Amino acid sequence: MSTLTPSNDQTIPAPRSPQVRKKGANLEKIGWIYMRASGVLLVVLIFGHLFVNLMLGEGIRGIDFAFVAGKFASPFWQVWDVLMLWLALIHGANGMRTIVNDYVVGATTRKVLVWALWIAAGFLIVLGTLVVFTFDPCLGVENSTTDWLIQMCAAR
């Protein structure tokens, strides 16, 4: 028959008992604050993005290559999109890190998964930032069959 009382090595400290904290930055606290701040900023950025793309102008019918090329020609929209990209990827990776820390039991597996998350997020951030800031709609235009694109690039 089993007993419900835990042994001495399984005792859980009282909820308000003093905790010994390591010196240095509290990364969990910084991550928690980042999630709240980036979440608020992402709501503003995403709804602004959706409003401009879907409500202004021709709506969804107006979104085509020329629309994207026009937006990426503006430094304002470049910064807007890169900020949204960075915040969303770091926010998502931090959320996944929290899930991994909560549910993965093995320390080595946890460490490998967290590293994989940050490497993937870093790769996507670098790749997305390069796409936004180096986007050239005239690249390969000589093979295009679109008249407006040929005319626009010839004028440059």
UniProtKB/TrEMBL annotation:
The chain crosses the membrane at residues 31-52, 72-91, 112-135. Keywords: Heme, Iron, Membrane, Metal-binding, Transmembrane, Transmembrane helix. It comes from the Bacteria. SUPFAM superfamilies: Fumarate reductase respiratory complex transmembrane subunits. GO terms for molecular function: metal ion binding. Pfam families: Sdh_cyt. Gene3D superfamilies: Fumarate reductase/succinate dehydrogenase, transmembrane subunit. InterPro entries: SQR/QFR_C/D, SuccDH_FuR_B_TM-su. One of its GO terms (cellular component) is membrane. It is found in: Membrane. This is Succinate dehydrogenase/Fumarate reductase transmembrane subunit. It comes from Microbacterium laevaniformans.
